[in-house]
Amino acid sequence: MKTDKLKQQDISPAQEQRLADAMRTLPRAPESPWFTRKVLNRLPDRQRRVAARIEIATCVIALVATGIFAARFLRQTLEAPEIVTGDIMMYLVYLAIIVALAANICDWLFIRPLRNAVQRRNGMARMQ
């Protein structure tokens, strides 16, 4: 219903521009550390979500599986009489997958908690 009323009101571009100019001239609210602290205290604590746990579990399982397949492939190619270009390409593919999964796991385990701690510290420093 509300959208129907809004659709019925035709506002010209000139009126929109005047309204935007008027809003730009409004005074800004003063910065209040008390208000910021009070709002932040009401926010729920950040918890690791279920989706993040599923993501890390999936990455660990994929890393283990890729490592097993890479080891099997390495053993088979070392037993072969010659190594061809396709084998080298497969080594590179396995290496890229393992590096990507390891980077994702390291980000989740080390970088994100560190980033959150720094943000919390900087946020608290701004409020004091």
Rg, Å, rounded: 28 Å
Q: Give the N-terminus to C-terminus distance in angstroms.
A: 46 Å
Assess the beta-strand content as a share of residues.
under 5%
Helical percent range?
over 70%
The main sheet comes to: none
- From the helix content, strand content and strand pairing, which structural class follows? mainly alpha
Q: What is the N-to-C succession of helices and strands? A: HHHHH
Low confidence ranges? none
Number of strands: 0
Mean pLDDT: 80
Shape, principal axes of CA atoms: elongated
Number of helices: 5
Explain this structure to me?
With 128 residues, the protein is mainly alpha-helical. It has five helices and no strands. Helix 4 packs antiparallel against helix 5. It is elongated, with a radius of gyration of 28 Å. The model has no long low-confidence stretch (mean pLDDT 80).
Short synopsis of the structure:
This protein is mainly α. Helices cover 80% and strands 0% of the residues. The two termini are 46 Å apart.
Q: What brief labels describe this structure?
A:
single chain; 128 residues; mainly alpha; 80% helix
SSE topology:
Blueprint: H1 2-8, H2 13-24, H3 33-42, H4 50-79, H5 85-127
Helix pairs in contact: 4-5
